[in-house]
Backbone:
């Protein structure tokens, strides 16, 4: 129901029976549920597009989905994007990824991401250079890569 139709329907019901608050309440609740449903659907579509883009990007950088760091890096970028720049990578992000992937030691998450970054840094594909440039004299840190990817994703979406 369009907003204008919805408001007309409310006005009609109020004019017919101004005492029937429950009926009007139910109508409002139904409309809110429809709106929430649309928002969830849009959020799911955006998340799907984000995951597809990240997968394609990492593949173009030379990071294979067979590497554990591939999945960890996608999760880290998504968490950093959702939690914000004030989230701490070792205190907030790595523990959540470890829990998500059922990894007992947080250091394995850090190492997996670092190894994936090393592969991409050593290959320096056109996609890598397009996003990160060729300005790093040595391999960038996990946090640097994650933050640049978050910014890149925000610019794309």
Residues:
């Amino acid at each position: 129901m369009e907003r204008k139709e919805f408001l007309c329907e409310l006005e009609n019901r109020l004019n017919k029976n101004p005492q029937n608050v429950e009926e009007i309440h139910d109508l409002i609740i139904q409309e809110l549920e429809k709106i929430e449903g649309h928002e969830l659907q849009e959020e799911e579509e955006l998340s799907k597009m984000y995951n597809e883009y990240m997968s394609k990007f990492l593949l173009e950088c030379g990071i294979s989905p067979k590497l554990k760091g591939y999945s960890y890096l996608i999760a880290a970028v998504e968490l950093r994007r959702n939690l914000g720049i004030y989230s701490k990578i070792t205190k907030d992000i790595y523990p959540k990824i470890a829990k998500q992937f059922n990894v007992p030691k947080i250091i394995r998450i850090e190492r997996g991401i670092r190894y994936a970054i090393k592969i991409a840094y050593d290959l320096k594909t056109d996609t890598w250079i397009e996003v990160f440039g060729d300005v790093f004299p040595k391999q960038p840190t996990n946090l640097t890569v994650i933050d640049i990817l978050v910014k890149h994703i925000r610019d794309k979406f």
Observations:
- The chain has seven helices and no strands.
- The chain has a mean pLDDT of 86.
- Residues 67 and 151 are 24 Å apart (CA to CA).
